[in-house]
Design goal:
Blueprint (H helix, E strand, L loop, with lengths): L25 E4 L12 H9 L4 E2 L2 E4 L5 E3 L22 E5 L2 E5 L7 H4 L27 H15 L4 E2 L2 E2 L2 H6 L4 H12 L10 E3 L3 H7 L6 E5 L13 H4 L2 H8 L4 E5 L14 H7 L3 E7 L22 H10 L4 E4 L2 H8 L1
Parallel strand pairs: 1-2, 1-13, 2-7, 3-8, 9-10, 10-11, 11-12, 12-13
Antiparallel strand pairs: 3-4, 5-6
Helix pairs in contact: 1-3, 10-11
InterPro entries: GP_PDE_dom, PLC-like_Pdiesterase_TIM-brl
Family: Belongs to the glycerophosphoryl diester phosphodiesterase family.
GO molecular function: glycerophosphodiester phosphodiesterase activity
Length: 343
Amino acid sequence: MIRFILIAALVIAGGPALSQSFPEPLVIAHRGASGERPEHTRAAYELAIEQGADFIEPDLVMTRDGHLVARHENEIGGTTDVADRAEFADRRATKTIDGVEITGWFTEDFTLAELKTLRARERLPAVRPANVAFDGAEPILTFAEVIAIAREAAARTGRPIGVIPELKHPAYFAAIGLPMEDAFVAVLEAEGWAGPDAPLVVQCFEVEPLRRLNARIDAPLVQLIAAGSGPWDRPDLTPAAMLSPEGLAEIAAYADILGLESGLVIAHDSGTPTGVVENAHAAGLQVHVWTLRAENHFLPPAYQRGDDPTAHGDLHAWARALYDSGVDGVFSDFPGVAVQARR
């Protein structure tokens, strides 16, 4: 059921069946305007929309009672006030997630009602100290609430606002009895977003969940690829193998878009395009690149300004270089800058 469609042809769900064009390349607000507000909060998403983002991105993890919530990871010690909540002290645990041992508090050990009592915090306070002023102001959002934010903003602004969720660790959740794909499709059906007209794109680092979703929903699918490691559920695949002509052909059989770490598109040390965009387009795949951040620490050397790793470099120029490489979309913690660079 492969559906290679231009993202610009997506339609606002819930309204008249009138095709609405998105600008090109897409600007995707990475966890909202997460450079300026704590990530995955209503404030972050709404600021991103105000700044002109086309899509907002929630990372999705699961609760003990089977709900999908927007958090960067299922470990929430650094993104909520859970560590300060005495009633949840006994929930602290050590787990192995995708081969990595992690100690903290995990969403799958809480019901949705319990998680709703927590408040969001800035994940990178040393890098983004201004965001700390917003700590404690907002609750954790469900996936359905993120859809509602996009739907309400589309009605308010008169332009399409899409949602591009990332399914985090679906193999892990399935192994503990929380099948993420079933919960995900159930939300789409309940919200009327399961059909081809929804302004929805779905992404995952794992391969098999995308293959299964390809048979269940009509949304474009994104195969995420990091530079340093392959998908957890397919240890036989390396990034190089996935980006070979054979690998691209295999991905194009179940997905529509590559979501690539920026160094796979333009080498950070030399500033030279790798050719992956042209190869992907030849295989029938679009390319989204992640993640554009303003701080020097996250920028290639040519775009850093000064010696302070937390100071802002020239994100505008870095975005322009990526646009010039031919990518079809960019993820940015600072979507306002990405929108300005696109203009």
